[in-house]
UniProtKB/TrEMBL annotation:
Official protein name in the record: Arylsulfatase
Source organism (scientific name): Marinobacterium nitratireducens
InterPro entries per UniProt: Alkaline_phosphatase_core_sf, Sulfatase, Sulfatase_CS, Sulfatase_N
Pfam families assigned: Sulfatase (PF00884)
Species lineage: Bacteria, Pseudomonadati, Pseudomonadota, Gammaproteobacteria, Oceanospirillales
Superkingdom of the organism of origin: Bacteria
Keywords: Calcium, Hydrolase, Metal-binding
Length: 601
């Protein structure tokens, strides 16, 4: 039995005293205007630092119940606000499109990832503006408006919004409002300097890099080479610090966007982990020993910690949770051979070190900014990834015997070759993703994974801290989405709105404690990706699983997310919910019409 109640009505009760104290002090200091209005009236506009992790699961970091050591993110949560009901889009570039535009991904051109246009999209979708696979040029990315308002704008890491089949120079970060940028154009790549892309890319022959190579840009320079000692998380942090410090004396505020590619596959360790006797080698070995207990045991440990932290209700029951994966092809840990368990434990250890190392680099970044005058936002772009590289390559038509670099790597994935053999797993030359059993743990307490419209695909960690944010380390179950960030940042910067209509709403009144919710009752949000659908309004969710994951995209379910975030109890056919079902079906159809959703083949 499962009863998965979340604290979904504002601030968690365990923090009520701190909340009362915060408001009492605020009232004494701000007798005329509220905290949000006071911040906007200040002559000193805050810096804004946005940090996005790639494919990080909901429960991976310590503040959300994970065993992975993330002291800097945990401290950020302790000094600010932790959101337990924040939503992104089901996959990378649709989330980033909504982030940059403040609107639905279809209206921004990312109803489908550009990689999936080759083999997964219908002719009708390919002809529609909402499925171009890049951020439409007629939209204004919010950094453009921040820069016009006097902000320095910096970006490092994964971009994944460019038109790689034409008009590349008009769609890189430098063309979308970023004063300085160092970006990976595609959706993923080797974390080392070999520039191997995560997926074959449809770059035309004659581009600086094409086929299986990653493409990097610095400012307007396309095809930037990487240093020999490149490791993504370190390099992106160094670059962003360099950009921030280069303008630190002029007194202008900045917006900085750290779009890390960790822990997106290929899972690869920082180079320090290969140094004999190093701190990171010891951490790696420690995680390996810890994960030998397996993913089934880890489920119960994480859920217990999530209850202690208040991420999920203390009386939530998950008695059948270890069995959930069996129906999804995940074998019981104890049914695996000793060699299989050993290898899978190492895979998860590589993932954990990547997450902890990202936290370490985030700590370096936070130490170099004025946190008294910097609003810091941390989130993941979607849920945990459970799809293997081979399955993704199949979906875009990579031939099984192509003989390219990808296939050579894949042939070693069973551990029979030098690169992906056990002893080199996680080091230069290896190329793999972790097991779906670990992805199930990463996404706890939700069902489903990245690319699904279930909560496991769209519910993400979100931490906010800094001026104008309640600073009592509270938890909130208020509903919010990635579309709310652009209007929030625009209001913080006192910048003009972009030309497109914003479908999100500024979070400032909520963050300051002036309101208990981001959105008023009756506010709803829809999702669609590759035939998967969802619509959330007032705590209820209409959901249809996509064909790629065993659904048909038309068989609906209804879930009460306040009491069932794991989506186990389908209320769709319950007569007591008939009116709500009818209302939400109408709302989804209105959403699909308004945003130009094209039916999936």
């Amino acid at each position: 039995m499962f009863v998965g109640r979340f604290n979904n009505n504002g601030i968690n009760q365990m923090h009520n005293y701190k909340k009362m104290l915060f408001h009492a002090l605020s009232a004494a200091l701000l007798s005329v205007v509220g905290p949000a209005e006071s911040l906007l009236a200040s002559e000193t506009r805050p810096n804004i630092l946005l940090i996005v992790a790639d494919d990080l699961g909901y429960s991976d970091i310590g503040a959300y119940g994970g065993e992975i050591n993330t002291p800097n993110l945990d401290a950020l949560a302790g000094s600010g606000l932790t959101m337990t009901n924040f939503h992104a889009n089901p996959s990378c570039s649709p989330t980033r499109a909504s982030l940059m535009s403040g609107t639905d991904s279809h209206l921004a051109g990312l109803g489908i990832m550009y990689e999936m246009r080759h083999g997964a999209a219908s002719p009708e979708q390919l002809a529609a503006d909402g499925y171009k696979g890049y951020l439409l040029p007629e939209l204004e990315a919010f950094p453009t408006k921040l820069r016009q308002a006097g902000y320095h704008t910096y970006m490092v890491g994964k971009w994944h919004l460019a038109n790689v089949q034409g008009g590349l120079a008009q769609t890189i970060p430098a063309a979308r409002g970023f004063e300085r940028s160092f970006s990976l154009v595609q959706g993923g790549a080797s974390h080392y300097g070999d520039s191997l892309a995560a997926l074959p890319s449809p770059f035309p022959v004659g581009a600086p890099r094409h086929n299986q190579h990653a493409l990097y840009t610095e400012d307007w320079n396309i095809g930037t080479e990487l240093p020999a000692d490149f490791y993504s998380t370190t390099f992106y942090t160094d670059k962003l610090i360099e950009y921030i410090e280069s303008d630190s004396a002029d007194g202008q505020p900045f917006f900085a966007y750290a779009a890390y590619t960790a822990p997106h596959w290929p899972l690869q360790l920082p180079l320090e982990a290969k140094e004999e006797g190093s701190e990171w080698q010891r951490k790696f070995q420690s995680y390996q020993a810890q994960y030998e207990a397996g993913y089934d045991a880890l489920i119960h440990r994480r859920l217990a910690k999530m209850k202690r932290l208040g991420i999920i209700a203390r009386d939530a029951e998950y008695d059948d949770w270890a069995e959930y994966g069996r129906g999804n092809g995940i074998p019981a840990w104890n049914s695996l051979s000793s060699e299989e368990r050993k290898r899978k434990a190492r895979e998860m250890a590589v993932y954990a070190v990547m997450v902890e190392y990202m936290d370490y680099q985030i700590g370096r970044l936070l130490a170099r900014v004025d946190q008294e005058n910097t609003v810091v936002v941390f989130m993941s772009d979607n849920g945990a990834e459970a799809t293997s590289p081979r399955a993704l390559w199949n979906s875009i038509g990579v031939p099984a015997d192509s003989g390219n670099e990808y296939e050579n790597l894949l042939r070693d994935s069973a551990g029979t070759g030098d690169y992906n053999g056990y002893d080199n797993l996680g080091f230069p030359g290896s190329y793999f993703a972790y097991d779906p059993g670990w992805a199930r743990v990463s996404g706890l307490p939700h069902r489903g994974y990245k690319s699904m419209t279930s909560e496991g695909g769209i519910s993400v960690p979100m931490i906010l801290s800094g001026p104008g944010v309640r600073s009592d380390g509270a938890l909130s179950g208020a509903f919010g989405t990635v579309m709310d960030l652009a209007p929030t940042f625009l209001q913080l910067a006192q910048a003009d709105s972009p030309v497109q209509e914003l479908r999100g709403e500024s979070m400032l009144p909520f963050l300051a404690g002036d309101r208990d919710a981001i959105h008023a009752a009756g506010y709803g949000v829809g999702w669609e990706l590759l035939g998967g659908k969802a619509y959330i309004e007032d705590g209820y969710k209409l959901f249809a699983l996509d064909p790629r994951h065993g659904g048909d995209g038309v068989s609906w379910s209804l879930y009460d997310l306040v009491n069932d975030r794991a989506e186990q109890h389908d209320l769709f056919w319950d007569p007591g919910y008939a009116e709500r079902v009818e209302h939400l079906l109408q709302q989804y159809e209105r959403y699909a019409d308004d945003t130009g959703v094209v039916p999936y083949p």
